[in-house]
Hints:
The chain is of the alpha/beta class and about 325 residues long. It has helices spanning about 1-20, 35-45, 45-50, 65-70, 85-90, 135-150, 165-170, 180-185, 200-205, 220-225, 230-250, 250-260, 265-275, 275-280, 285-300, 315-320, and strands at about 25-30, 55-60, 75-80, 95-105, 105-110, 125-130, 155-160, 175-180, 195-200, 215-220.
Amino acid sequence: MKKRLVVLALLAGLLPQLSMAQDKVRIGYWTSGVSLGYGAVLESQDFLKKRGVDAEFVHFPDVNAPLKALAAGSIDLAFGAPVAGVFSIAAEGVPVKIFSATQPADVSFVVPEDSPITTLSQLKGKKVGMSPAGSSVAVIGTTLLQENAGIAPNEFSLIGGNESRLSQFLAQKQVDAAALRTLTIKQLPELKLRIIGTYADEWKKLTHSDAVPYIGVGTVRSELVDKHPETVGKVVAALGDTLDWGRAHPDQVVDILKAKANLPEDQARAYVGLWDKMNQMSFEPADIDSLKREHAVLLSSGTIKGELNNNLFDTRPWIASKNLK
């Protein structure tokens, strides 16, 4: 009897620790582009802690690295994983789920202002800078060039790099064109670029719809969301808190970006000016339909492989987050 009481007492003492362990989440993100600014704000505030989540942040210098970390089990969740890569690893059997649409494709094809190139079809045989191969920007861009401009993937040279590297390539005439986020274009007016097409407009032309493609999605390992959907729901709520706070406190966001992301004042304010255009936290039926359409387009173009399993979309965290105050 005494042994049983001792065991019960030990278990009782462990319960709070077990509960805390369940809410421990390793969150990874790419420290460039859209993810850098949003991640800096998320890390600098206590939104996750206030929601009862003990978060450990893991930074990656490569856009595809969070996917590899999810596959290896070294992180639990990524709030801006490249959607094309998520489709691919899920089709390969990696146990992951999408829990939110987070980053619309606010990207444009640009050329130097003095370039003779005026249309996408003129990029055939040219060097085009994009985020690295395998990224959503590269996959969607390749699809748009193929389907709308008649340029096969082997009929142009994809030069990969992050946004700052691509800007250098343009300035040094090492590429003929590039796919850049609106943020980068606004942050670097001295580049004097001309837009020859946007992802949003080209996608509407391709799909004959008003849907906008996503480049980033919230992705979580299946084990965590299956065992503790309420924990992922708390993360979703905290991610939403981050968006709301950033919208209401633009000056504080600028200060955070200057301190944490090493952005000068004008570039930080450019980021804040596009806060809601670049970041979102939603997983309504319309968002899922858009992602399904995106998968179908990318699959038919041959830029991704593998059929889509509807179980990839997990709405439990989104529903749970809406029940949290």
